[in-house]
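Below is a filled-in request sheet from our internal design queue. Each sheet records the structural input a requester submitted and the sequence that came back. We keep these sheets so that new team members can see what a complete request looks like end to end.

REQUESTER: design group, bay 2
PRIORITY: normal
MODE: inverse folding
CHAIN LENGTH: 369
BACKBONE (tokenized):
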């Protein structure tokens, strides 16, 4: 581990338990020096704070893997164009971050940590600005009209929209979404279909407790409404050069990007077996199973194994989807795509390590919806 990475991890561990405080100080300081930025952010900042901190943690964890680091921060820079962020805004933000960390860490902070975070922030800001610059030929966000909206269960909806201008993306990527019912509150969702000539985009959304955007996308939006989408992000895409068979592991609406990958494979795949494991709590939450079974009937290379983790009456596979995948192994020669709740992704990655699947063959995205 490099010195920089060690110092970042060591200092982060001091404030980790109080990271909401770091987020609070950080934004207070940023808005004090740049009051005009306040209008771009939602009134309620709690989720935004969590997302900032997740982004910092992801960046710090990937700092020793230049490809991942560059790709992640480049995407974040493209995505932040929706906030009309200018290069000048980056200047004071680094100071605000270091100050927030220093205040929360108190006596345990030292000048070495200060320098490490300044260096890391500089690298992060450069990658974000480069990502934004490379995307400057595209509009920072696009408007899209909702065409269809279908409630698939009490909490889950599948809807389709059409952007007013083309939105180039790759199957497996995700975008930030804002709707008129929750202005300035952006949440990321995966595009659930492969790019198509008509440019339509599908989304799968589950409304969860206080998830305002998800709630509005499930219960309020209707055909004719407009939503806004920012630049596509994410690396969970297909490697066309690989000839290995594929295992897809989807938990709940984490199925969305996997469905897009399968649709992409339908365009060209003749030789790779694709095993899809789709886990949900109960039968109602297997919200796309009919469509998946239809695809499997049409394409002999595709198999679908559904499983329920909290439905004793279900006659198919029982248990967390990670355990079901393990039961069907070994999978040493396969490429993996994993998507779903963070805890499910983590457990699946651990299970695959135990099955000796090399980590380079496992794709997943840091997901902070
Ligand atoms: N909507 C979208 O576009 C996307 C959503 N996601 C994420 O997918 C998740 C979907 O949530 P829900 O549909 O509510 O899923 P859920 O909470 O109902 O879980 C679905 C399945 O995942 C597994 N699972 C859940 N928690 C687990 C744990 N602690 N350990 C092991 N396995 C576990 C189980 O098999 C469970 O049946 C959200 O966290 C969302 O952030 C990920 C990618 C795209």
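RETURNED SEQUENCE:
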């Amino acid at each position: 581990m490099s010195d920089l990475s060690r110092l970042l991890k060591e200092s982060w561990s001091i404030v980790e338990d109080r990271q909401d405080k770091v987020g609070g100080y950080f934004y207070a300081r940023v808005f004090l020096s740049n009051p005009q930025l306040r209008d771009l952010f939602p009134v309620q900042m709690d989720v935004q704070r969590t997302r900032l901190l997740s982004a910092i943690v992801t960046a710090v964890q990937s700092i020793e893997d230049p490809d991942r680091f560059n790709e992640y921060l480049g995407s974040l820079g493209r995505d932040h164009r929706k906030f009309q962020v200018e290069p000048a805004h980056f200047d004071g933000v680094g100071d605000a971050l270091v100050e927030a960390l220093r205040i929360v860490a108190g006596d345990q902070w030292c000048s070495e940590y200060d320098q490490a975070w300044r260096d890391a922030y500089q690298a992060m800001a450069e990658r974000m600005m480069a990502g934004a610059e490379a995307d400057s030929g595209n509009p920072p966000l696009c408007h899209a009209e909702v065409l269809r909206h279908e409630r698939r269960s009490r909490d889950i909806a599948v809807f389709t929209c059409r952007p007013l201008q083309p939105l180039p993306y790759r199957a497996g990527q995700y975008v930030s979404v804002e709707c008129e019912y929750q202005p300035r509150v952006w949440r990321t969702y995966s595009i659930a279909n492969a790019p198509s000539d008509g440019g339509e985009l599908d989304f799968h959304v589950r409304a969860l407790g206080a998830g305002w955007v998800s709630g509005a996308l499930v219960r309020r939006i209707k055909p004719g409404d407009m939503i806004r989408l920012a630049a596509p992000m994410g690396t969970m895409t297909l490697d066309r050069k690989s000839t290995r068979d594929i295992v897809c592991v989807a938990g709940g609406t984490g199925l969305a990007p996997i469905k897009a990958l399968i649709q992409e494979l339908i365009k060209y795949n003749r030789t790779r077996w694709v095993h899809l494991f789709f886990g949900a709590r109960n039968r109602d939450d297997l919200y796309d199973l009919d469509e998946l079974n239809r695809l499997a009937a049409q394409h002999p290379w595709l198999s679908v194994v559904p499983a329920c983790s909290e439905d004793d009456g279900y006659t198919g596979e029982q248990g967390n989807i990670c355990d079901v995948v393990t039961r069907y192994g070994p999978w040493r020669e396969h490429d993996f795509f994993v998507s779903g709740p963070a805890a499910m992704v983590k457990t699946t990655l651990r299970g695959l390590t135990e099955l000796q699947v090399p980590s380079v063959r496992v794709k997943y995205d840091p997901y902070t919806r």
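SHEET NOTES:
- The chain has three domains: 3-134, 142-229, 246-363.
- The mean pLDDT is 92.
FILED BY: M.R.
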